[in-house]
Design brief:
With 119 residues, the chain is an all-beta fold. Helices cover 0% and strands 52% of the residues. The strands form 2 sheets. Strands 2, 4, 5, 6, 9, 10 and 11 form a 7-stranded mixed beta sheet that branches. The termini are far apart.
Length: 119
């Protein structure tokens, strides 16, 4: 059984930074960050695989960095140069495989942490 617990969300002004954390327990071969803004579908932000490779959605490339501390079994998302359009509930997700990178492809979810970016 996999359990995920996010933390680190908050409110910042545009251009600011936040770092999200996701403490995991259980077998988490693929972990990812998703986000969902009000009225929009949940979308993948970034994912990290066991080999250390990662991918990012185009809108966050160069601004967000996903990383993992294997000793602590914790996934991170460093978010820099935040924009108002980054405002969303951010979710940590995990499963055995990283494909497909869609919400239905992940069986384990955290409760979410809110990120609000003001202009």
């Amino acid at each position: 059984q996999v359990q995920l617990q996010e933390s680190g969300g908050g409110s910042v002004q545009a251009g600011g930074s936040l770092k999200l954390s996701c403490a995991a327990s259980g077998d988490t071969r693929c972990m990812a960050w998703f986000r969902q803004a009000p009225g929009k579908e949940r979308e993948v932000v970034a994912d990290m695989r066991m080999d250390g490779s990662s991918t990012y959605t185009d809108s966050v490339k160069g601004r967000f960095t996903i990383s993992q501390d294997n000793a602590k079994n914790t996934l991170y998302l460093q978010m820099n140069s935040l924009k108002p359009e980054d405002t969303a509930m951010y979710y940590c997700a995990a499963d055995s495989f990283c494909l497909p990178l869609v919400p239905s492809g992940f069986g384990y979810w955290g409760q979410g942490t809110q990120v609000t970016v003001s202009s």
